[in-house]
Design brief:
The chain has ten helices and 14 strands. With 311 residues, the chain is an alpha/beta fold. The chain has two domains: 6-224, Rossmann fold, CATH 3.40.50.300; 228-295, Alpha-Beta Plaits (2-Layer Sandwich), CATH 3.30.70.
């Protein structure tokens, strides 16, 4: 097992007013993975990232980046991290080329025009290299933030809500870009409240709620473990109530009695139970016009987890 690139141990943060933003967070990130941190607004995602990046001080606990403590060995730890913040705050009159070159210099890296060119080409910003930032579109500005974060060749890249407020097409471009960055060996942590982003991108998913991590799981395992399947039966006419003879099946009525919904676990073999259900429906004299199955999405699972975490 490789040592983790990021290790967060017993991390807590209480702000001056007594608000506990983070409570005893433990998290290990593996080199080369895409890790999605999911949580509702105010759950503590940005506070956690700010502490790891050394922008906010923790109240308790430790953070190490590739073995370097981010307090005792701040410069080394921070030089391994790239951060793409949510806010598009960028120096308006600066050119794209100068902004990225300057970011590189901030981390004590010597000029490397070839590296800056490579990043700008990868982010489709090469044609804009001499443009002033104020002339860029919102999508281009977001790409520029990523370019600046990559300027000093970090090993760990944080994307805080990378596609908030950008259109669907650009989101897809960003996803492709994140994957290509991972292919070059960069480890990526993204925070998002777009469930489809995590479903599309992540190898593992952490769910944070009210300052606590309530789950860390491989995405496929999570989908498998918590995914439910629904079998929807469309009825020719409304049913007033589910007959007693069918009470032992997990059935609910929907759409004013026009649909019967049967819920089963995706990891069980539901087929034999569905066959039994269909036999029992026939015996109870219930006909149906059509049937279809749907699987619960990560969104359904997330909503369920956060509810449980707050219970």
């Amino acid at each position: 097992m490789h040592s983790p690139i990021l290790s967060v141990s017993h991390l807590s943060k209480t702000f001056d007013g007594g608000f506990a933003a983070l409570k005893d967070i433990n998290l290990e990130i593996r080199k080369g993975e895409i890790f999605a941190l999911l949580g509702p607004n105010g759950a503590g995602k940005t506070t956690l990232i700010s502490i790891i990046c050394g922008i906010v001080n923790a109240s308790a606990g430790t953070v190490t980046v590739a073995g370097h403590d981010n307090v005792r060995d701040y410069r080394k730890a921070r030089s391994l991290i790239g951060l793409v913040p949510q806010e598009l705050t960028t120096e308006s009159f600066e050119t794209v080329w100068n902004a990225v070159s300057f970011s590189r210099g901030l981390f004590g890296k010597g000029p490397d025009p070839a590296h800056v060119e490579k990043i700008l080409r990868a982010l489709s910003l090469w044609d804009k290299r001499d443009s002033k930032i104020m002339t860029l579109s919102g999508g281009m500005k977001r790409r520029l933030l990523i370019a600046k974060a990559l300027s000093h060749e970090p090993q760990l890249l944080f994307l805080d809500e990378p596609t908030a407020g950008v259109d669907v097409e650009l989101r897809r471009d960003m996803w492709a870009l994140v994957r290509s960055l991972r292919d070059t060996g960069v480890t990526i942590i993204l925070t998002t409240h777009y469930i489809d982003e995590a479903e599309e991108m992540a190898d593992r998913i952490g769910v944070i709620s009210k300052g606590e991590i309530i789950l860390v799981e491989g995405k496929d395992a999570l989908m498998h473990k918590l995914g439910k399947k629904l079998l929807t039966l469309e009825l020719p006419g409304p049913l007033a109530a589910i007959p007693d003879a069918l009470n032992h099946h997990p059935l609910t009525l929907a759409k004013g009695g026009h649909e019967l919904i049967y819920t089963y676990d995706s990891q069980d073999d539901g087929r034999s139970r569905i066959a039994e259900l269909l036999r029992d429906l026939g015996a109870a004299g219930i006909q149906f016009k059509d049937l279809h199955t749907t699987q619960s999405s990560l969104e359904d699972i997330f909503v369920q987890l956060v509810k449980e975490g707050q219970a």
